[in-house]
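Appendix B. Worked example

We walk through a single record from start to finish. Start with the input: the chain for non-specific serine/threonine protein kinase, Saccharomonospora marina XMU15, length 443.
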Amino acid sequence: MTDEGVLIAGRYRLQARIGQGGMGIVWRATDEQLGRAVAIKQMSLHPGSEEALTEQAVQRATREARVAARLRHPHAVTVYDVVRHDGKPCLVMEFLSSRSLAAVLAEQGRLPASSVALIAKQIAGALAAAHEEGIVHRDVKPGNILITAEDTAKIVDFGVSRATGEATVTDAGTIVGTPAFLAPEVARGSHATVASDVFSLGATMYAALEGHSPFGETDATIALLARVARGRITPPETTGPVADVVSAMLRNDPAERPSMRQVHEAFVALVEGRTPVLPPPGPRTLVLPARRPRKGAAVAASAGVCLVAVGVVIGMSLAGSGAVPEAASPPNSATVTTTVSDHGCTASYRVTNTWPGGYQAEVTVGGERGRRLVGWSVTWRLPEGYTIDDVWNGVLARSGQHVTVSGADWNAVVPSGESTAFGFVGAAAGEQPLEPRLTCRTP
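Next comes the structure step. The output line below is what the pipeline stores for this chain.
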């Protein structure tokens, strides 16, 4: 990234490198304006032309900051700011003197059930709060859980999280997350949902109890993904109520898993010496409570590093899918208008969040009567005083008051019977968000 002692954004002085991962390099730094320690994470760019990819990386970092900033919880690391240094995006976060759970397990092998229950209680509480804000973490794993000397646990790196109701910037055919802790449905190609986070936290706590992931250990990524996709876990050797709760979290059917709030309550009971209560296996409907939009809160999606299984098909294609996960309804969402064009494609528009003077929307595009699309664009007119910015999963063009969003490289082709989506943040001159009439066209 750069050297110790460098000043970032005119206020953050780098002190020492403290970590490095798929999302970037992390430094301990000092905020010289506020006189406090912070963590600075420079987002990694994909291989290739930095000049061509820097803006995309900045957008990714900005979305991560916005998603993470929505969550204020004592067991989630706080994101303070997103800045640029040498044209590259940097996240400014709470500094926590700690070790990752992965490092703790590498040293100790496994933890006693009482310690696992205490960690799980704290992290499940933070994730339950995130789910109630419409945020799916998507990469819960030992490396993303920090433990202090006082046994305080915090979840970090919402860099691959998704605010439900928003499109992502991941390429079609990619899997987001860490293989050993993925939920089976995600390995098979489904979108990550709140139930997937439950499984991933269960897999993480299984590793803390047993010393290895529920799918065993292998250095062969593709073989591990295939094993995860089949959903065949090794029953834990550890017995007792903590293992029972973890096993409930690892149910193969997402509909049979407890909610994260129920998981949190179960671990609270265990830490307090009470008997946990969990729902029996059986289909259920996951419903997130609607949240009132908060003043000035612009919500954007975040997509971080992707694990790409190249040339191997195990039912994991995500091509063209931009739909909202069925298990987690977005907050404050409402379908505003749907236009079926006679130009070969359909486009449906909905507002996913609002705040004073602004709003966020998502547009879903598909082939008319289920046909395959090879290239698409959606056009509408903005009244005076309305703008749109920060478009993701699409390419924006303006002509006067008319805006056109066309497919990006990774979603211009939409297979038969499938759909894709793009999203954006807009400024509204009035109290209500724009309700446009869309025109969807193909070449």
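Two observations about the output. The radius of gyration is 22 Å. Residues 195 and 254 are 6 Å apart (CA to CA).
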